[in-house]
Every structure is written in structure tokens, then in C-alpha cells.
Target: LacI family transcriptional regulator
Amino acid sequence: MEDSAHPKRSVTVADVAKAAKVSKATAARVLGGYGVVSAKITDQVMAAAAALEYRPNELARSMSTGRSGIIGVVVGDIENAFFSLAVRGISDAARLAGFNVIIANSGEELDAEKSAVDLLIGKRVDGLIVTPARCDSIDHLQHVRRAGVPLVLFDRAIPELDVDAVTGDDRDAAITATRYLTGQGHRRLAYVSAMDAEDDGLTDIARISNSAVRERVEGFVSVLTEAGLPNPLHYVRLGATNQQQTDGVIKRLLSDSAAPTALLASDSLVGLRIFKSLQSLGLSIPKDVSMISFLDADWTSVTVPPITIVDQRVYEMGKLAGERLIARIERTPLAVERLRVSTSLVVRGSVATIGR
Amino acid sequence: MEDSAHPKRSVTVADVAKAAKVSKATAARVLGGYGVVSAKITDQVMAAAAALEYRPNELARSMSTGRSGIIGVVVGDIENAFFSLAVRGISDAARLAGFNVIIANSGEELDAEKSAVDLLIGKRVDGLIVTPARCDSIDHLQHVRRAGVPLVLFDRAIPELDVDAVTGDDRDAAITATRYLTGQGHRRLAYVSAMDAEDDGLTDIARISNSAVRERVEGFVSVLTEAGLPNPLHYVRLGATNQQQTDGVIKRLLSDSAAPTALLASDSLVGLRIFKSLQSLGLSIPKDVSMISFLDADWTSVTVPPITIVDQRVYEMGKLAGERLIARIERTPLAVERLRVSTSLVVRGSVATIGR
DNA sequence: ATATGTTGTGAGACCGGTCTCTTTATATCA
DNA sequence: TGATATAAAGAGACCGGTCTCACAACATAT
Model:
């Protein structure tokens, strides 16, 4: 009874060749499925391969062909439904084209992102999809391009980087959602995001290093400004990174003398935290506070009331990013562009009509 | 202005060696961080490497060392919160030990699982964590062992396969949950799973090819039998694979002359579907029907009422599986065993007390 | 002074595939 | 029948690292 104690040198083409009494080159042709070999020899080799349980060493194969058949994906946090859906879309696109996917988590931290990118390049991935944690640090991404590895940005664009990006139409989405809220009579609206920040507040939109969030905030602010509502920036709050932080943010927001009547959650995690905060404060939605969340997450449809959301079609975004990357890998001639996946507002029950 | 049109042969140790005017072997020693090299030469080589922007080719490195630094994970469905949490646990354990993770989706299909396993073996992963779709087809897994690649099963055990497994204490969990329901006065209980099946019903527990589900059903049935309740198998229903199927399953269950008063959902996806089914049937939880779901998914805590669940501690399961696999990879001498992560019942509001 | 040990460097085999180039066997044609 | 085209198989270089071994230079022991 032999066991797996020893790494046991695996069966190689040479072994198969010897067993089939042909040259290594011939066996390789059969096993690699290239070149031309007679039917008789093919059978011989296949039989020998089956008998020896030959499995090709993809590593070696990659090394000589220069292609690994792998695309690397660096995301902020796989646990986030946004990213797991996106990864699903990417994987589906990849599988269809015969590629596999390595996923790396950056935890939205620049250093982790850099080392993940370096590692994947080292593994000689055929292409890379990255959700850049910050849009103001681009050396490592520029290096990817210099290394000749196709790159597609996901969810966030970096105009200075001459590279494809697949994002939502964040600005428009925020505008639509905000207009809907003002249309329902809301005059004091807050935007809450999980972005790291020293304090809740925000002084300068341009300093938001995540383009998706920045554009949403821009959209949000533009609608409020256009509607003549005062001091929109005052109601943009960051730092809702966990339940406790969120509880604090919400409590501060609502204890304001001019407390907002509606909240816009930057993603479904923040949305869920806000929902729980409101619940623990004993506030009812939408009677006491209205809310809209980004992303059609599971939980949003089973709450009471169900949550009005911005459907980001993340799966499509992922799929599109995957397809785009594969087109690049296959050298399809295409202009560098930013692909925007359009979102839609799904009205459910979490927004009250007020005023009049 | 050069661009990334050409794969541009990457910088190799030989290039660095030439630039540093030393032999390839010496440059390799410096860059690979092994052997012994004088400080002066080390500096020369490092300078040359920096100037040329050398990045090691991990593929080549893996090929000569025989280690890839990658562990492969084959899961049923990444989109399922159960697996994404588990993957997070595995990834964390892996990162801590300096490994990376490749994830492959089997879609709970045997063929996809087989080819994923083959592919990962081909990529020469250092170890493999697999959630076997079926416990009665084990050739491909046996082959993994014969190939000398450490293997850890996740969520489901296969006793015939002499290999480590990390699972929940599914039997006990089901027993606890079922006892809780009978303790609340329920006499007719149903167990609903997403397992594929020709018809809803179940004739023979032993034929359930997923050990986690089988053990839960065994626990479920044992409690009912012990309590002297008639025909427990009648209330075990499979095939709740999507919303429509689940609607059918629930409708049939509840239109039974002796309809169950409580439902046990095999996982959080099934739980969510059941919740939606009941909602669409206009039934109220727990007044009309009680339910318990496996897995502490996001949605279970924000419904009205919040759902009583079996907390599976999936992150810990994943982490444990990762750690175990890494111990195997590093040849730590350990007996093959099945590690059970204990679960706990989290009582919330979805179970009514009836009778008396 | 010669033998022995140590340290740093170079030469080249090796991992397991792919792929080009060459050689051999068979088919086609004048 | 001999010349030439063509198909099939073999030999061996190559990818970019690691790593063993040989060897040189210098230090220490005898």
C-alpha cells in the first residue's frame, strides 16, 4: 500500500514516449495535440498515457508557450457581494474563452494590492483585472503595462492611465437616485460611504481617491446644488467601515439640528449597516428615515420595507471586464476606452414621500 | 513612446548577470536569495536588477523547485455566501503561510469538478481543498493522492477516502435544531434541501450523495423517530434549486393534508428562497409557518421576524482547512482525521411555540 | 613548504513541456 | 524506374529559473 508520502516524480512525456516506444517529440505531439501524427501511433501513445496516468505539467507548458491560461483578478474584498458577483462574471467569461482565474484580495489596501499585482505578474498571468484601491498611485499599474501584460481596471477608472476600464455609470446612478429622493420631497439628504477617513466629513470631493465613490458624490452634490439646497458637502459622510463606526456616523448625522430625512448608502455593506443602525436606534424606515442602497444584494428584498436600490448589474460588469481583457490578450485591435455599464433604480419601499 | 503591443521578452537572470558582469549562477544566487555571495557582488547584481526592472518568473522558479506556492480550491459555488466565507478563511490561512489561492467553481457538478481538479493538478498546485459534489465518485480524488498532492476535503467527508476532512457537526446541528422545534411543540417538520433530485421526495437516506446533507437528514430523522413521530422521511424534500422549484416544493408541502408547521432549510440560499416563497404565498412567519435556516447569512438578521439559524462558523472551517492543508504540504506528521467544527443554534424570531 | 579547509564564483545539467529542423519512409509523377 | 513531393517520426535546442559540482583563491594546520 503506497501512500502519498513522497512527491513522487510525476509522469512526463518522456516516460510516455518510452512506454509507447516512440520519440519524445512524437509523444509530445500527440499529448499536446499539435503537429501531425499517424492514427496508429496516436493510439499507442494515448494508450501508454492512459496506462501511466499521464497529466500534462501546465507549468512547463506555460513556460515554453509563454501563455499561462490564467487571468489574475485583484479585488477589494471577495466577501463583499459586489465583488463575488463580479468575480462570477469574470470567471464565466474566462471559462468560455478557456482561461482560468486567480483571485487575490487587496483588502482595499495599496500595499497589499501592489504585492498582489507583483505576484500575479510573476506567475505570468496572461492578463490582469484590478480594482485599484486608490486612483492616485499608479506606478505598479504602469509597470504592468510596461511588462506587456494586458490590464483592465474594474469599477474604478484612472484617466491618467491609458488603459481600459469597466465601471458603472456612477455619476448618473447617483443623480438618478438623488433626483428620485428630491422628487419625493426630501430636502436634506446624506451620502454615506465606507471609505477610510480621519473624520466623517469631507472637505474636497477631488480628494476622494476612489473614482466610483467620487463620481457618485459628484452626482449627488450636483443634484443638490442644482436644486438650490444648501451645503451639500456637509451631508457626505465617510468611514462607515464597520457596524460600530456606522452606528456612530448615523447617530451623529441624525442628531444634527438639520438632520437628513434620507440616506444614500454607497454599497450594500454600508446599506446593511445603516439598516441595522436605524433598527437599533428604533427608527422606522421609511417613516422616520428614508434610504436607498447601491447593489441589489440578497438582504435588500426581504426586509420590511424592502429597500429601494440602485441595480449595478455587477455580473454584467464582471463579464464585460473579462471579455475585454480576453480581447486584449488575443490582440484584438481596440481603442482604449472606459466602458460604462448602465444602472437602474429599483423602487421598493424604503423611501417616503414627504412635504406638500 | 513604446507601448505594450509586443509581449516583449522579459528580463531574465541571464540579462541581469550580463549587466552586472557576473555569471548567471551568481546572479541567480543573489536574486533567488540562496547560496552565499559577497556583499560587493550582491550590490552589483541588485543594482543591475533594479536598473533593468527584473521580476522573477515564478513559473520557471516553480518548475525547478517543484513548489508553486499555490493552493487550489474547488468549491460548489463562490456566489454562495457559505463558500465565499470559507474561501476567505482559506485565503487568510494561506496568506499567513505565504501561499496563494486559485479558486475554481464546480457548480456542484461532478464533471466540472473533475476537470477543475485535473487542471489544478496540472498547474502543479502544492495542495488542494475540494468540496466534493458527490461522495460516491472518488476516482479523481484518489488520483490526487496518487499524484502526491496533499488534499483536504471541505464541508463533506468521504470515509472511503483516507484523507483529512473539515466539516461542520452536521448531524448534531440538525439534531439540535430539530429538538428545538419539537421542544416548541412542533410535530410535523420538513427538511428542504437544494440537492438535485428527480422528484421532491426521498426514499433512502443512504442514497444522498452529499455527506453534509445526509448527516443532517439523519439527525433530523433520528429526532423525529425518537419522538415517535410518524413517517419522517415523508417530510424530507429535495430539489429547491431555484426560486421557481422552491415555490413548487413549498406549495406541495403546505397543501399536504398534514402540512408541516416548521421548515428546516439546508442552507441560506434555500432559506432565502423559502422565505420568499412563504412571503409570496402570503404566509406569515412564525404565525403560519416556522422556519430555521442553516448559515448566519446577512439577510437572516434583518427580516421580520429575524430568522433563527444554525451558525456554522464557516470562516473557521475554511481557516482550519487551510491550516490543515498547509501542515500537510509542509509534511507535518499528523494522523488523517475528520475535523468537525461545532455549530450553535442562534435563536431569533422565526419559530413559534405551539400546542398546549 | 605542503596538505587541508573554507569561501566565493563559474559552468552546465535539469525541470517538462514546445517547437524547429532534419531525417526517413511512403506516395506521386514523368 | 528514378526523381521529386509529401507525410511521419526523431533529435535536440529552448523557456528561465534552481542547484550540483568543479574550481580558484586564500586561510589555517602540520
About this structure: The mean pLDDT of chain A is 93. The domain at 170-313 of chain A is CATH 3.40.50.2300 (Rossmann fold).
